[in-house]
Amino acid sequence: MANALPLLDNPRRPVHPLLDMTSTRGPRDELERLRSELARHNYLYHVLDRPEIEDAEYDALFRRLVALEAEHPEWVTPDSPTQRVGAPPADALVPASHALPMLSLDNAFSEEELRAFDERVRGLVRDDAVRYVAEPKLDGLSVELVYENGRFVLGSTRGDGFTGENVTANLRTVRAIPLRLRSDSAPPPARLEVRGEVYIEKVALQQLNRRREGEGLAPYANPRNLAAGSLRQLDSRVTADRPLRMYCYDIGRVEGLHLESQLELLTVLPTFGLPVNPLYALCETFDEVVAFYRKVQSLRESLPYETDGIVVKIDRFDLRREAGSVSRSPRWAIAGKFPAEQGVTRLLDIQVSVGRTGALTPVAVLEPVRVRGVEITSATLHNEDEIRDLGLRIGDRVIVQRAGDVIPQIVGPIPEERTGAERAFVMPSMCPVCASPVVRLEGEAARRCLNTACPARIRQSILHFVSRGALDVDRLGPKLVDQLVGCGAVTRPGDVFRLDRETLLGLDRMGPTSADALLAALDAAKSVSLPRLLYALGIPEVGSHTAEILAKRYGTLERVIQAAESDLLEVPDVGPATAEAIVDFFANEENRRTIAQLLEVGVRVEASSAASPTTGALTGKRFVFTGTLASLTREEAGRRATVKGASVSDSVSSKTDYVVAGAGPGSKAEKARELGIPVLSEQEFLALVSSDG
Ligand code: IVH
Fold first, then answer.
1. pLDDT of residue 577
2. Order of strands across the sheet with 658-661?
């Protein structure tokens, strides 16, 4: 048996049965068990939203699998959970045809139109006991997944209904999609084509859009655009970075399984581990359909996903066949759309705001208008190209909509209503706040103010620093921050901890009680958990979820700072864009000064069990690899060190603990010798990582 690496050496920690190496199973067997265990936890977490283990334990299982696969690359199969990180970019998307066409739906825009559908159906179908299943209509991208003997072999977009695009590699990164079907109750069918919607939750889209705006990228207008943009990617690592989900609601060709109705389908699919939206209704009468339509409409704002109506389908498949289809839509189903979400108002002005990263964002100032019960007074215009593409002029009558429940959006002007008094908008060539020249960097849609001392940039970064998910000092609101930045008392996050009573008392509406309370709150905020601190720093691409993951993986700020890009890429959920952003952030002088100042003024990472790093025989040891290794690649070697708790970096410094030199080592080995750092041969390294200590 190949050397099995003991993973958790800390005896006090309960060890997952699969990580208990005292049993004598072979590595092949262990690998299979790890895969199905990981798939099960994935299902519990992503589909049922009912996790049974801590993230750290999941990560440990995952890393154990990575290590095993590194030892046995010949056993790596596309359905391994390790393959969800994305494959290297493809040259082009390849067409994939559907065995049975993927139809689209006719729309009903009102309850009356829904009733007309019901009447039509009753005229077409003999059985007057026809009943319906009604489901929310999800706003995403429809896809087809093909499972052969329980294995996910092909995933495609709908395309024109007959032929879509093969997006298998991208769909593999969607964690709600099982790579293998569960088969606890029965063996999986020989072939199962299942269809459904890939979508993103509203909050996740908002988060992603905030991040994109910070980067000067155009936000996604709605979940559909995001799902399409993410799935029709040539680089599946980009898809892996997106929190996509899926709900299944239909089947294509199926062999080895007989389903008779939608209700049966919705009940059986989850037993295979396929995600199904729990919100649906079996409607015996048309009145029940209407009741469901109203129910979803009233739940609409509070649902985690975007829905623009319901889909009503005849339940029994034999009756569907009787009803048949016309051209591309079935006569047995209809989409009941909710009323319009658009309104008409006037574009009063376009103002330009400056974000944390200096990106200039034009914002539409609108005459207030109610759309779907919410008053809209402004809308983001993202960048100057968008204003040009829309052909907007200040003073225009415009159509606005609540896009995907996210950000109000301008659909376009109504040129016929122009009076001639409208004027064109010109993007400023100087920062509207600090008047420094702005630049449009190559490949970016946004102009940026590059002045790191720009009060707008400082204001935004301070507001982010003290925001709820960060240091959470809610006494430090926008008005106070404006004053503090305005008078020059605060120019970097750390300055807030240097504020004294006297300075505070000099501010508007600040009495001794408030000043003391703020000072006490700031003092308390100095002790912060690592994930919050990482989030507070405002690293591009790092939201609170990623901050959480980084904290778990590295345990200390120091180690996150030192992490090499290759090492970050090993962290679950960290894609290439994020890894690069993290490395760039910590390489930046200005950011380093900010961090140094925080430590100087007494900001401390509070000890927390959740933030404890993985422990192993090599916990805390830092490795650098150089030269060509004979029996494994550097990546594999790196993984074997990291499973033992070590970290890997690219360059040798006084902090390096070991340099591992293969054939033809370069200056790194030399530098190590100069610094008195032990240089290990490949054999010595292998002995070190496979020893039990
Ligand atoms: S059933 C022929 N159910 O709506 C019926 N479709 O306009 C097959 N959609 O392409 C579709 N939620 O992308 C069905 N619960 C749901 C749906 C749904 C969203 C989408 C799907 C389809 C489009 C039709």
1. 85
2. 647-648, 622-626, 658-661, 679-680
